[in-house]
Design a protein that fits this description.
Elements (H helix, E strand, L loop, with lengths): L22 H4 L20 H5 L5 H8 L8 H19 L11 E6 L2 H14 L3 E2 L19 H21 L5 E4 L2 H12 L24 E6 L17 H10 L7 E4 L4 H16 L2 H5 L5
Parallel strand pairs: 1-3, 1-4, 2-3, 4-5
Helix pairs in contact: 3-6, 4-6, 5-9, 7-8
Length: 292
């Protein structure tokens, strides 16, 4: 069950932040408008945090509540809004025995078709599409520098905020989202590793956070490049999307059901519905109290 982390001021550094306080960091500007280059760099054993891969809500707050970050106005505002607007959603939906509807995630190697298909799938199912970041944290979308650790922490926290919004809805109707934990993880892996160095199936890097709501079904849209030409907004290495697909395919629990080499969204949606029907017809879903 997801629980909202107690956002109190820590009286100690996190274990990770004890490893390295360089002279560059110690001389950084203490103002709230400091650039991303001046943000503290976490030590070597916390490499996953630096990449933007988080395995608990607490890990995210270790960064936000570090003494070099917690007094920044944008950070304190983020924490306050998260507690007041996002965590409160969980308090309103504490009945875990009530039957619920499916929670579905749609991922892709390209962003524009992913969001379009996810929204269409929600409409077909009579459900709701919830974005990442969700409404309760969207006001901070452009607050933190694009290359900074605080921005990665913000997107990590957005996953938990999304989970709260999902739980507030999925007792009434199906919920579809995109850009969830698997997406952020595959993106970070693709930036860090060469194609032949991407961790194999079973590596701990793919371990789903225990305190983050898991989707009932996850889809991977492996979209041909020519279908999304003209949408590119960020310059990435030539094989970046190929690396993303490899990382997606090596994820388990939950694994992603791949739909590839299809140019028509209607066909993609039909395949998704067929795969969902096969999944939810299984007797174990009745035991889980999930109604398709």
């Amino acid at each position: 069950m997801i629980s909202c982390f107690n956002c109190r001021v820590l009286r100690y550094f996190s274990v990770c932040s004890l490893f390295m306080i360089s002279s560059t960091v110690s001389s950084m500007n203490s103002s709230e408008d400091s650039s991303a280059a001046a943000e503290p760099i976490i030590g070597a054993n916390c490499k996953m945090k630096n990449l933007g891969i988080f395995y608990s809500e607490k890990e995210i707050f270790d960064i936000l509540m570090d003494e070099r970050n917690r007094n920044r106005r944008n950070v304190s505002d983020l924490i306050r809004v998260y507690k007041e607007k996002c965590c409160s959603l969980a308090e309103e939906n504490t009945n875990t025995t009530k039957p619920r509807r499916p929670f579905i995630v749609v991922e892709s190697n390209h962003r524009p078709p992913r969001k379009l298909v996810a929204k269409q799938l929600a409409d077909i199912l009579g459900g709701e599409y919830i974005s990442v970041p969700p409404k309760c944290l969207r006001e901070f979308l452009y607050t933190f520098d694009y290359s900074g650790l605080l921005r990665r922490a913000y997107f990590g926290l957005s996953l938990y905020a999304t989970a709260y919004e999902v739980k507030a809805v999925y007792h009434k109707k199906p919920v579809v989202t995109s850009g969830y934990w698997s997406d952020q993880t595959s993106f970070a892996i693709s930036k860090e590793y060469d194609l032949d160095k991407i961790p194999e199936v079973g590596h701990s890097i793919y371990t789903w956070p225990e305190d983050l709501l898991k989707p009932d079904v996850s889809f991977l849209m492996n979209v041909p490049q020519r279908q999304v030409d003209g949408y590119a907004t960020t310059m990435l290495p030539d094989n970046f999307q190929e690396k993303r697909i490899v990382a997606f395919r090596r994820m388990r629990r939950p694994r992603l059901r791949e739909i590839k080499d299809i140019f028509y969204y209607d066909t993609i949606l039909t395949q998704m519905q067929s795969k969902m029907l096969n999944v939810f017809m299984h007797p174990r879903w009745k035991r889980k109290n999930v109604r398709y």
